[in-house]
From TrEMBL:
GO terms for molecular function: cytokine activity. It is found in: Secreted. Coiled coil: none annotated. Gene3D superfamilies: Cystine-knot cytokines (2.10.90.10). It comes from the Eukaryota. Keywords: Secreted, Signal. Residues 50-71 are annotated as: Disordered. Signal peptide: none annotated. This is Interleukin 17c.
């Protein structure tokens, strides 16, 4: 009818992109307020733990996996029986080391450290035991994984009792998780 046509033509049309912008804005508001919230110095660690529990991290080696082995290519170890651990059986072996940063949560994590610049090759001999060598025809290359940390940053405001306050800002750091063997990079 004429009344329904006039009502339709009078009602304003909202462009289809506006609901998307509104939804996008509603999603960002909690993110901005969450990372800009300031915590008292004695509460920042608890807040970081709570936030990290909600952000699933990929598996990390346990701190017990950290090796006291020297940072040198263990060619001689390959002449004996292999170990069960991957980092000691790899043709590009690595060890785990602790990395610390007091302004990050977690403040300590484990990272791989490549032990060889080349790759370990086991060359068979017809008569006698195999010969183990480090070949520089190949390179040991770190395998990196991006992990999220929460960085503690000083807020411009102070707490009610005059103590310092901190905000937790998500930062993404490349962490070496292992090493692999690759052909030498000949690109300029």
């Amino acid at each position: 009818t004429m009344a329904s046509i006039s009502k339709r033509s009078i009602s304003p049309r909202v462009p289809s992109s506006h609901p998307q912008i509104l939804i996008f804005g509603l999603v960002l508001v909690p993110v901005w307020t969450y990372s800009s919230r300031c915590y008292d110095e004695d509460k920042v660690s608890e807040a970081a733990d709570k936030r990290l529990r909600t952000h699933r991290q990929h598996g990390s080696p346990s701190p017990a996996a950290v090796s006291d082995s020297p940072a040198e290519c263990p060619v001689k170890l390959y002449e004996r029986l292999s170990s069960k651990s991957l980092e000691e059986r790899s043709l590009s072996p690595w060890r785990y080391v602790h990395v610390s940063n007091k302004d990050y949560f977690p403040s300590t994590y484990v990272q791989a450290d490549c032990l060889c610049s080349g790759c370990i090759l086991v060359q068979d001999r017809n008569q006698g035991s195999p010969v183990v060598v480090e070949s520089h025809d190949y390179n040991s290359v770190p395998i990196e994984q991006t992990r999220m940390f929460l960085k503690r940053e000083l807020c411009s405001s102070v707490g009610e009792d005059g103590r310092k306050q901190y905000r937790l800002v998500p930062v993404y750091v490349k962490v070496v998780v292992g090493c692999t063997c690759a052909r030498v990079n000949t690109a300029p």
